[in-house]
Amino acid sequence: MDSAAALIAVRFALYLDLMLVFGLPLFCLYTLRGAERRAGGNVMSSRVVVGLALAGVALSVLGLLLLAAAMSDVPVLQLDRETLGALLDGTAIGTAGKVRVAALLAALPIGFWLRSRPSALWATLSCLGAIALGSLAWTGHGAADEGAIGQIHLTADIVHLLAAGVWIGALAGLLTLLSRVRVSSDDRQERMALAHRALAGFSTAGTLAVGLIILTGLVNSWVLVGVGNIASLPGSLYGRLLILKLLIFVGMLGLAGWNRFRLTPAVEASLGTSDATAAMQSIRWSVALESTLALSVLGLVAWLGTLAPPASGS
Ligand code: HEM
Question: How many CA atoms are closer than 13 Å to the CA of 233, on its beta-carbon side?
Fold first, then answer.
């Protein structure tokens, strides 16, 4: 794998990992209640989130090494200490990288200290995840502009990352709950009821996340593409990847609407009847498809962030 492809692969893995570190505990906070929280470990073990945080540390270090190698145009194994030091101590990317690693490492003691207090644990892990995820704005085009436009773009990009993290964290949480109802167990009816309530409960957070994604995506597009370059978008690799991303996004919106207005009510109507298994299976497949589309969007943005955007004129 050449270094450019390796950098895109690490960016993709980092987007996914940090969106889960932020979005999964947040999903538990607005989905699980009362006894479910205390039993939260069965639903979403904090060990999973701490494990993801540590994976985030390794990916962050690898990402910074690959970035330093790409910037000095040498293979990563020939990277010298000065170049790495210049990136880490002399650039905003380096500072953001150090903040990200510190936030992720803090998840370890937090995961241990707060293991018997699920609400405080998930709230703290989600905050640490938000810091780490937001810091990625400095590794792409989010921090490329100066002045007031620069501040607007950076803020929009951070909100774009967090809103995407809410959606993708929830998809992972829903898939986990929906896969648990497949297992025949004494509490299968409770598991089905919990999965249904999580599906219904996501509609508010989902609508908010989609609204913020569209708003901040338009700001990103306005700054990085520019109104004057819209017509020529199909003429560049960047433009074609962005168009493909938006088409997949429309597909995700369609599936999310189908889940919310058709499949979730069907699950509700089937609870306690013999139709419940079939209704659960339909929505499980639909959420799995929506998650696959979400992964492809992350793959596209991992690539987009390494290409020159139209408004840069290069
Ligand atoms: C499923 C929905 C979406 C997800 C998960 C998503 C995710 C992301 C992520 C992770 C980035 C990289 C941010 C960075 O590293 O700084 C990004 C960048 C971007 N997004 Fe989205 N986005 C979504 C929808 C949209 C929509 C609807 C638009 C346009 C209206 C949009 C426009 C952009 C643009 C222009 C960029 C900058 C690409 C670059 O780095 O050059 N996104 N998006």
Answer: 17
